[in-house]
UniProtKB/TrEMBL annotation:
Ranges that cross the membrane: 127-153
SMART domains: IGc2
Alphabetical GO biological process terms: cell adhesion
Name of this protein: ICAM5 protein
Occurrences of domain Ig-like (ranges): 39-124
KW Transmembrane (keyword) present: yes
Pfam family, one: I-set
Length: 195
């Protein structure tokens, strides 16, 4: 054990052994001493980060030392998307919004006292980020529509119907577009031009 001191500290906790001896023998006895203390070293951690994108999920964890084990309380921005752990040591947020921005304070308490710690959470609602994501979505949509329009013109812009291929091939009013092999024989694509 540490040297005797009028003030008990956490360093005094441990197992002490007493040995008594006389002419008839000796006896030993162990005594375990626990030193109780108020909560100390309160720390908060935001996972994955204290800078959160709008719509993302995050959690805030609180840890503290103390004997007896401390209980935990929170002061934080009120929002409908909060979920507390069974032991109240952490709070999870799903789909971060502006209401989740602010100071998260955890207070650890036992019968010897209490201690608090805080962390600031920022929710990024940058309009530039939102506009950039919408712009990239719009560009992808425009490219898709252009490709679909080209395919439509290529496949359906010609006048469709049944024609005598031999007559159409010799006519100045027809242009042969393509020929395909099919189970029913050969199929020709032709385009009739205006007279």
């Amino acid at each position: 054990p540490p040297p005797p001191s009028p003030n008990v500290t956490r360093a005094h906790a441990g197992t002490y052994q007493c040995q008594a001896t006389n002419a008839h023998g000796s006896a030993r006895r162990n005594v375990t001493v626990a030193v109780e203390y108020s909560p100390a070293a309160v720390s908060l951690r935001v996972l994955p980060s204290a800078n959160v994108s709008r719509g993302a999920s995050f959690s805030v964890e609180c840890r503290a030392e103390g004997l007896p084990a401390p209980t935990y309380g929170w002061a934080l921005p009120l929002a409908p998307n909060l979920r507390f752990a069974a032991d109240n040591r952490s709070v999870a947020v799903a789909g971060a919004a502006a209401a989740n921005r602010g100071l998260y304070t955890c207070t650890a308490t036992n019968r010897h006292g209490q201690r608090a710690g805080s962390v600031m959470v920022r929710v990024d609602e940058s309009w530039l980020a939102l506009l950039a994501s919408l712009g990239s979505l719009g560009a992808a949509t425009a490219v898709g529509l252009a490709a679909a329009g080209g395919y439509y013109l290529k496949t359906t812009a010609c006048k469709k119907g049944e024609y005598n291929v031999r007559d159409a091939e010799g006519s100045s009013e027809a242009a042969c577009l393509h020929r395909q092999r099919h189970d029913r024989g050969e199929i020709y694509g032709i385009q009739l031009t205006q007279p």
